[in-house]
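Regression check, fe (ii) ion case 234:
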Amino acid sequence: MNKFQSAQSVGEIVSMMPGASEVFKKFNIDFCCGGHRSLSEVVRAQNLDEAEVLGKLDEMYEKTEQLSGHTDFRKMTLTDLIDHIVNTHHVYLNRALPELSDLTNTILRVHGPTHSVLFRVHKLFHSLKMELEQHLIKEEEILFPLIKEYDVNLSEPLLEKISAIVKETEEEHEAAGDILKELRRITEDYLVPADGCATYSKTFQKLQELESDLFQHIHLENNILFRQLGLEVR
Ligand SMILES: [Fe+2]
Ligand SMILES: [Fe+2]
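Current build output:
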């Protein structure tokens, strides 16, 4: 008997076990913006072996069980979850985005003439950077303070206001997710060419870190935070 069922949504599985995100990434399963789809739906659409995916999820479950004290984000208050998101994922982005801006500039200058894909990498990354910078400010200055207020004052008009902003926020997550998918596609899964230098590898490795962190970040917001508010956004 598997620990997880294919009728569950992929977002729900990651909520129950954050480590599932690692498994889903290996199978190229989108668990943040596409988190509302059931595992069986995804498996069918992507022509995957359902038993294999469920088996890998079980392995991850056992691994997670052995590591005691993993955080169950679903049990956190809205305020604590927001603080965790900001202190972990927003802090990470504020550090990683400028660093990646320098790195993509450097490799464009050195390797752009022989690897034209780097022009597209540079452009896509910088459009993602600009969108995320605005997105983080919007969350920190508008959306999150409203949710924190709602956490202590369950008011209907407040929830309506939040709901409209959440919708916009989800669209921005989707747009960010699309840019990340495009980056992965054009770089052929971040393949470093044989003549790529150490900075080239470092840049691609950091872009992959950005992808992992952002997927987990969007997952926490879409599938846990917004769902805890009882908003059915989709
Ligand atoms: Fe965020
Ligand atoms: Fe967000």
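Comparison notes: The helical segments are 10-16, 20-26, 39-45, 50-66, 78-111, 117-152, 156-186, 198-228. The chain has two domains: 10-66, 74-228. No diff flagged against the previous build.
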